[in-house]
Design goal:
It is a single chain. This protein is α+β, with helices and mostly antiparallel strands. It folds into 2 domains: 66 residues, no CATH class; 121 residues, Cytidine Deaminase, domain 2, CATH 3.40.140.10. The protein has a 6-stranded mixed beta sheet, sandwiched between helices. Helix 1 crosses helix 2 and helix 3 packs across helix 4. The longest helix has 19 residues. The radius of gyration is 25 Å and the shape is elongated. The chain starts with a helix and ends with a helix. 21% of the residues are buried.
Length: 198
């Protein structure tokens, strides 16, 4: 972290080494922002008011960001639990919608996001938006789900073609598609449960 402090001062046109010496006087062996007393903070700020105040705000924000974790929606280790979850979320929708579940390395769902909304009978989309969203979320793997307002739970030829395309792109990008779901208000279909790649 002291390297970042050095570069902070350098970026503002100060002598990073000199400013780091001052920083080390106040914080010789690290510190916890939530335990820093007001007197130490004010003394440090008084050395270079605007800049040191900005530094403390930046370090505090960085610490908060480091502690932030995405909430876990559910475990996707069992297709049935995800199928029922997707069915509850999407089964009653009147238009077709495609959503992507973003998974961490423990196969926990850290996001379930709508990628496309279509018509009553179809949704058209490209793999680019799906994988772009997965990379932005630093996902380990994905699951896709879309609904069939018609009530038919089985995949169409278009569904099969699109899923095969996603499987291939996922393999190439080392970001695998683990399953593909179709949901209706009464049921769900899972590629993994059917034990085939469509």
């Amino acid at each position: 972290m002291k390297k970042q402090v050095f570069y902070f001062y350098e970026a503002l046109g100060f002598d990073g080494a000199e400013q780091l010496k001052v920083f080390n006087l106040y914080f010789p062996s690290g510190y916890d922002f939530f335990e820093m007393d007001e007197e130490t903070k004010e003394d440090f700020i008084s050395e270079n008011p605007a800049v040191n105040r900005a530094l403390l705000h930046a370090l505090f924000a960085g610490e908060k960001m480091r502690q932030y974790k995405r909430p876990i929606l559910l475990s996707a280790k069992h297709s049935e639990s995800f199928g029922r979850f997707a069915q509850e979320e999407m089964g009653q929708l009147r238009q077709e919608e495609l959503r992507v579940a973003l998974l961490n390395t423990q196969l926990e769902i850290i996001g379930f996001e709508t990628i496309f909304v279509g018509t009553l009978t179809e949704v058209s989309c490209s793999p680019r938006e799906i994988f772009q969203r997965a990379f932005l979320a630093n996902a380990y793997a994905i699951i896709i789900a879309h609904n069939h307002p018609s009530g038919t739970v089985y995949p169409s030829e278009q569904d099969a073609f699109f899923t095969k395309k996603l499987l291939k792109v996922g393999q190439d990008l080392n970001l695998p598609l683990l399953d593909s779901f179709i949901v209706t208000k009464d049921n769900y279909w899972s590629m993994a449960e059917e034990d085939k790649e469509l």
